[in-house]
Amino acid sequence: MQAIAVSWGSGWFLALVGFVCQSGILCAQDHHSFARPQDHRIRHLELDLVVDFDKKILTGLVTLDLIGGLETRTPLSLNTLTLDTRDLDIQKVVGLTKNGESIILPFELGPKDKILGQPLVIRLPKPGLRVRVEYATTTRSQALQWLKPEQTAGKKYPYLFTQSQAIDARSWIPLQDTPNIRFTYKARIKTRANLLAVMSANNPLEKNSKGEYVFEMPQPIPSYLMALAVGDIAFQKISSRTGVYAEPGVLAKAALEFSDMEKMVKACETLYGPYQWGRYDVLIMPTSFPFGGMENPRLTFVSPTVLAGDKSLVSLLAHELAHSWSGNLVTNATWDDFWLNEGFTVYLERRIMEEVYGRERALMESVLGKKGLLAELKSLPKEAQSLQLKLKGRSPSEGLTDIPYEKGALFLTHLEGIVGRPKLDAFLKKFFHEYEFQSLTTADFESFLNRNLFLSNPKAIQNAQIREWLYDPGLPTGAPDPNSPRLTQLAALANRFVSGLITAGDLKAKDWTSQEWLQFLGALPPKMLLQRMNDLDSTWHLTQTGNSEILCVWLLLCIRSDYGPAFGRLEAFLTDQGRRKFLKSLYEELVKTGPGKARALAIYAKTRSGYHHAITETIDAILGYKP
Ligand code: BES
Ligand code: ZN
């Protein structure tokens, strides 16, 4: 929502550009969707799809229950329904009347936009119709990744998964693809008999002989949380309401790594109110999953790269779980407000980590988070540095920086510093309660903040300071500066190692956690003497580490230091896993030198076809690769 000043007579008034779209809240204009929520909104969706692994398409239909908009509707606009689509094959649109008749509805696909796809404009001859679209996905549908058996852990069965966030739900379901609209859903998925289908909904515990599964999501969710995975998937329980889904060979390891799931859910409930989604399960994805995790409701999707064997990377689970409050329950209204999802979630994640693993662990993660943010701020253009983004005309994936995550979390930490923990906790609990199952903009949050945290104590923080955090680039002066004595020690140790005062053997690093390693390696100069690289590697076997976060930072150092013995592992790491964060930083480092770029291109030519769309989009740009 935007506020513009309008002159009227002798005075100025604020005119709100927006429309009422849910009880009393003005609806933001989402420039990443063709949908017109002011005319119609999907309130319930039914999906009926067949998974065709041979053709690599989904075929079937979606049926939409609509409710009319509340304001600014004109009879003319009510006669059409506009849905978002991208790379879909739309076959037929049918209107269903209350007494069971069906009417063929005329439709038209509008011009193609590179980022947004195509509007599907459907004519509605009368009100009160349910709308059914018969369609198929295409091999270009970006949300879908179809994996060959070789790309799975078990190597025997194919696998399919979706990734809808931010604006890719429209590439597997024609719908209103905006976080501003929520709906409940049911689905029927038909696949091969030896595969299990799971969704962001209530899930089956085992395969059935028909390969037919039904799902229900009774809580209203935004479209970017629509999710499906199909593969050789099994389930193992952790507590009565939590568990892990994974390929059979990965299941036991995953259940051990995530054995604290129930503790995490309890910790978050104690802080911010009841978990509202019934069960909380996790699905361990194949290695090509492009993100660390995705908070699909009831069933978080997680990259296997977080299974370090020692719970050292479980903050990712805390993060995705926290989205059950920040993001899934209370949602950003547009992708410009993405920090409302991610910044809150990083703050909640660290609070969960503190409850379950102690203050020192949470503090270390905050210190590393801020370090990453400061490093990224150096290279980000000013326009990309404010919490509220301006992504109009650009892909929402351009907003995937440390700004929404770490600057967002620092803002909440800053507020905590001003009012104290008990007050901020009560404020956040109220926030999640008042806005539950709703979407809001940065401006909505700003006003909630002023009304609830500072109304009785306006001197505590100036409005200008809040606005600086939300709308200005950089980090405001007085931003929190988390400090971990242990990490400070490690930076000192790194200095002594670099200057030759101590050797790798003196580090006593046998029991170092990931956070300690990340700090130590991060404190080394960008380029190291080969002799020291050798010393580190032969003593601590970093090239062989099974911890993906440590490995990534180590490999970056190896590239910069031209440390040959690690290049084989580098190629394997670029091939065996598909996480955007790792691939992006490694390829970016490689292209900085001629030989590095040549190596990168050679590897990429072999691996590109196994990467997800979200990855090829990113890496093509880094390498200047023209497919
Ligand atoms: N929701 C995000 C992933 C995402 C964001 C996918 C935007 C597509 C578009 C998820 O919760 C997330 O933040 N994942 C992070 C991990 C997190 C611990 C920082 C990731 O995948 O790296
Ligand atoms: Zn997140």
Question: Would you mind describing this structure in some detail?
Answer:
With 627 residues, the protein is α+β, with helices and mostly antiparallel strands. It folds into three domains: 2-232, tricorn interacting facor f3 domain (Immunoglobulin-like), CATH 2.60.40.1730; 325-471, Neutral Protease, domain 2 (Orthogonal Bundle); 485-623, Peptidase M1, leukotriene A4 hydrolase/aminopeptidase C-terminal domain (Serine Threonine Protein Phosphatase 5, Tetratricopeptide repeat), CATH 1.25.40.320. The chain contains 18 helices and 25 strands. A seven-stranded mixed beta sheet has the order 9-8-12-6-5-15-17, with no helix packed on it. A five-stranded mixed beta sheet has the order 19-20-21-23-22. Bound molecules: ligand BES and zinc ion (ZN). Zinc ion (ZN) binds next to helix 5. The site of zinc ion (ZN) has 4 residues, from helix 5.
Lay out the secondary structure.
Layout: E1 2-8, E2 11-17, E3 19-22, E4 25-27, E5 40-52, E6 57-68, H1 75-78, E7 80-85, E8 88-96, E9 102-104, E10 107-109, E11 118-123, E12 130-137, E13 144-147, E14 159-162, E15 182-190, E16 196-199, E17 212-222, E18 228-231, E19 234-237, E20 242-246, H2 248-257, H3 261-272, E21 280-284, E22 293-294, E23 299-302, H4 315-322, E24 330-332, H5 338-357, H6 359-379, H7 402-419, H8 421-434, E25 438-440, H9 442-452, H10 463-471, H11 485-498, H12 514-522, H13 530-540, H14 548-561, H15 567-576, H16 580-590, H17 594-607, H18 613-623
Parallel strand pairs: 5-15, 20-21, 21-23, 24-25
Antiparallel strand pairs: 1-2, 3-4, 5-6, 6-12, 7-11, 8-9, 8-12, 10-11, 13-14, 14-18, 15-17, 16-18, 19-20, 22-23
Helix pairs in contact: 3-4, 3-5, 4-5, 5-6, 5-7, 6-7, 6-12, 7-8, 11-12, 12-14, 14-16, 16-18
The protein binds ligand BES and zinc ion.
